[in-house]
Amino acid sequence: MKRISLCVLISLFLMVVIPVEAAGETIVSKTLLPYEILSISMSQSTMTVSGWAILNETQHFVTSSDHSYELEFASNEHTFRVTGTTTGTNLTDTFRYGGAPICATTAYFKTDTICYYRFENVGFTFSIPISSLQIGRNYTVYLIVHANSANFHKKIPVYYPIQNDIVISSGQKEYRVVSKLDDMKITVKYATVAARKGPDRSYVAWNGGANCSSTYGNYHYFLLNSVYTNIKDKYLNNTNKMTYYNVSTSLSSCVDSRRRVVEGETYNPVWIASSFVEYSGTPMLVSTRIINTAPTIVVENVVLKVDDALRWEEHVTAYDVEEGDLSSKINVISDNYHNIPGNYQMTFEVSDQYGAKASAVLLITVLEHENNLPIIHAEDFSVLIRSNVDLRKFASAYDLEDGDLSASIDVDTQADLNVVGMYPVEFRVVDSRGAIAIRNVRVTVFDYDALFGKFRFVDKDELFYMEDIPVPWIGYTQRLRLLLETHTILESITVDP
After folding, report:
1. Each residue's pLDDT tens digit in the chain (497 positions)?
2. Which of 347, 372, 350 is CA-nearest to residue 360?
3. Which contacts qualify for 32-37: CB closer than 8 Å, 24 or more apart?
4. Which of 24, 88, 420, 482 is deepest in the core (most CB within 10 A)?
5. Dihedral over Cα of 460, 462, 467, 472: its sign
6. 395-399 and 403-404 as β-strands: parallel, antiparallel, unpaired?
7. 279: buried, middle or exposed (CB in 10 Å: 19+, 13-18, 0-12)?
8. Which residues pair with 421 in a beta bridge?
9. Alpha carbon separation from 496 to 262, 414, 418 (Å, rounded)
10. Measured between alpha carbons, how far is residue 315 from residues 80, 121, 294, 323, 331 in Å?
11. Phi, psi of 481 (to 5 degrees)
């Protein structure tokens, strides 16, 4: 027995978090294991639970060496326990059966009609490190009470009925205590509980209906094992450390000389202490999760021409509220794209650091190239007889897609540059996609004698040695100037001897 007490003291001192592989304890009702959770609070680092608990008809609960408490947090994937510290809550009078003597120190498992046990220092406080709660778990909470002197312990699911969840966030991690008041049912487990008008023994019981006996008159008592599903409110009485529940009742029959009531709408408010009821419904859960928004992928559908390069990275981006730009982490899941006319799809996916995923589909349309005909610019032109000239210089070509095609012009002509005359010339050009442009013009081959007649230029050194200047000099010079200005003579400056 001393060894057990020493181990308990060490655990209490160190506030040990104990992993649990298999609990094995028998789960009992509140009739055997009355308890009360008085408060739960959470900070960034710690969850604190306080309350009280006893084991009825077992042993004296006097010092921290003869009893101890554990909380078990159990999920499908992870279970652990935390040892609590005892506090000085005294509930001896609350659970004492009137008229019975006190039990002997070594008297164990005695009913309350034989003797009563002392319940001193039956309060507890648990400090649970938040870090011991794994993320992504739903823990059901159990209270284990150890009666060390009697070498006996039992386990019970914890209920802490509240209107609103208790929530704390640490970074992206959220911790939530859930124990819904409106999800809980209570069952009356004692036949002598009066239906009082207020949350304390000092309040009188309701009365009404016919008398059931001269002893109890028509005062109301809860019917044994009656169930209440519509719990309107709760109140913590800090004097006796009890929670009282507000229900509504209606009259039932007389049982054991008492006027019984059951759930109804005739009398309200009616209050009953938690120590007289059994809980049912969903026990308290501690849930943990990541506050995480899934990323999003934005796509801009693409229209390409055949042979254009597809750079999907320029059309697909990913963003996450918590992590920012995730574009570099985008993965291609499927791709049926080909560089031929048609409609195609590429599917992308991205994941954030917590595994939340997003996917999107990029639509790709490949079109044939629109090909405009090239354009040749050329007009009728003249060349000097016996000129050695490339006729392509008299034309230029441009294509909307390919640009300047002047160097690609082909010339088709039967012109004889050694014979004066007018000849047809065909300029032809083909763009990169086979589109052809043709331009037909005329070339005039001329010589000086036919154009100007015979004349001599005045020699600057022997002004009067040369032949006389022809009379129509002015006319010839004007025509010569015209030829110079139109570049005809300049383009024909090379003359075969």
Report:
1. 333 333 333 333 334 455 554 445 789 999 999 999 999 999 999 999 999 999 999 999 999 999 999 999 999 999 999 999 999 999 999 888 878 999 999 999 999 889 999 999 999 999 999 999 999 999 999 999 999 999 999 999 999 998 899 999 988 899 999 998 888 899 999 999 999 999 999 999 999 999 999 999 999 999 999 999 999 999 999 989 999 999 999 999 999 999 999 999 999 999 999 999 999 988 999 999 988 899 999 999 999 988 889 999 999 999 999 899 999 999 999 999 999 999 999 999 999 988 899 999 999 999 987 888 999 999 999 999 998 899 999 999 999 988 999 999 999 999 999 999 999 999 999 998 889 999 999 999 998 766 555 545 555 555 444 455 554 554 555 555 555 555 554 444 444 44
2. 347
3. 32/56, 32/57, 32/154, 33/143, 33/145, 33/154, 33/156, 34/95, 34/275, 35/143, 35/145, 35/156, 35/158, 36/241, 36/242, 36/243, 36/274, 36/275, 37/158, 37/159, 37/160, 37/284
4. 420
5. positive
6. antiparallel
7. buried
8. 445
9. 132, 19, 9
10. 49, 69, 20, 20, 14
11. -60, -40
pTM for the whole thing?
Answer: 0.64
Q: Are 279 and 184 in contact (CB under 8 A)?
A: yes
Strands 123-129 and 436-446 turn out to be unpaired
Q: Cα-Cα-Cα-Cα dihedral of 50, 54, 55, 57, to 10°?
A: -170
Residue for token digits 């709760």? Answer: 234
Domains and CATH numbers, the chain: 2-158 (2.60.40), 185-287 (no CATH), 292-367 (2.60.40.10), 375-491 (2.60.40.10)
Cα dist from 389 to 16, 379, 446, 484, whole Å: 105, 16, 14, 17
One-letter amino acid at 4 equals I
- In Å, what is the CA distance from 48 to each residue of 126, 134, 139, 172? 6, 17, 16, 21
For residues 11 and 71, what is the distance between their CA atoms, to the nearest angstrom?
13
Q: How far apart are CA 115 and CA 170, in angstroms?
A: 51
Distance CA 468, CA 157 (A): 137
> Which of 194, 250, 261 shows the shortest CA–CA distance to 223?
261
- The single-letter code of the amino acid at 119 is F
- Structural tokens at position 414: 């039967």
Type of residue at 16: V
